[in-house]
Amino acid sequence: MANSIYDTVTDKIIADLERGVRPWVRPWAKRGGGGVMRPLRHNGQPYSGMNVLLLWWASEEKGYSEPRWMTYRQAQELGAFVRKGEKATSVVYASTFDKTDKATGEKDRVFFLKTYAVFNVEQIEGLPERYFELAEEIDGTVETGRDERADDFLASTGADIRFGGDVAFYHPADDYIRLPEFAAFKSSEAFYGTALHELAHWTGHSSRLARNFSGRFGDEAYAVEELVAELSAAFLCADLGVEPEVREDHASYIASWLKVLKADKRAVFTAASMAQRAADFLSKNAAAAVESEPEPIAQAA
Fold first, then answer.
1. I need a labelling partner for 237 at 20 to 30 A (CA). Which of 40, 191, 229, 260 fits?
2. Which residues make beta-bridge pairs with 106?
3. 183 and 285 inside one domain
4. Both 79 and 218 in a single domain?
């Protein structure tokens, strides 16, 4: 079963990339058209990693505007029911088993993927109205202006971000990010998407997540790191309500991504997992920075 999961998902991504489409950069909008967001579980918890992509794709293909998903049993427990004829969407989770070497008796833990079926709330009848009300409203980014929420996020990550020049990059040796000035970007979405992409690279430093793909991917390690940054930026754009834009300077990576994905059907799952770790690292840094801010001093009346 696991192999078919890897094959099915990777083959879809390959087909999209061969058409010049990045399947993780599309305007998946929430109800009401205000920005983007991640798919949500029945309890409002966001999905993560590869499941974000799987449910985004299903929503686009089937035209769902609601972000919430649940299992058949969860719907039943709420006194609701899946409409007859509706088809489920498969999501994945990691599991393990211990494999024993017959010759040596040594045990080795093997990781594999399992699937389970979920339904969008638009496929279900009888749900309480709260399942059609989003846990958090996101207004989205103003087309031509700064986004205060996104600006606060960038500032609170702790990264050394320097502005100027006409090229965006992360400099690993000196551990800083260089971004052109805000006004140099064609849109605010382009600015924030680029900043989040470079922040994802920043998380891979040896003092943070120590991300290194050279052992597994060899010469293609850089392409995989770029894929991690693209996916992480897509996840964070959804969290911040910023509509992602395709980075024109990354068109050249499509060929290298295709090479990696065709050679290793598990590569995108590895990239999605690492991208989620990067996004989580940045979000935790930002949250910690907010919590550490001193309480404002009340002024005398």
1. 260
2. none
3. yes
4. no
Please check whether residues 125 and 72 belong to one and the same domain.
Answer: yes
pLDDT for 102: 75
Q: What are the backbone dihedrals phi and psi of residue 97, each rounded to the nearest 5 degrees, phi first?
A: -150, 155
One domain for residues 124 and 152: no
Q: Kindly report, residue by residue over 177-189, the tens digit of the pLDDT.
A: 999 999 999 889 8
User: Who contacts 210 (Cβ-Cβ below 8 Å, separation ≥6)?
Assistant: 204
Nearest to 274 by CA among 208, 220, 189: 208
Of the residues 122, 137, 152, which one is the last residue of a structural domain? 137
Packing angle of the helix pair 148-156, 267-292 (nearest 10 deg): 90
Q: In a 3-state reduction of DSSP, which class is residue 208?
A: coil
- At 39-77, the pLDDT tens digits run 999 999 999 999 999 999 999 899 888 899 999 999 999
Residue 281 confidence (pLDDT): 97
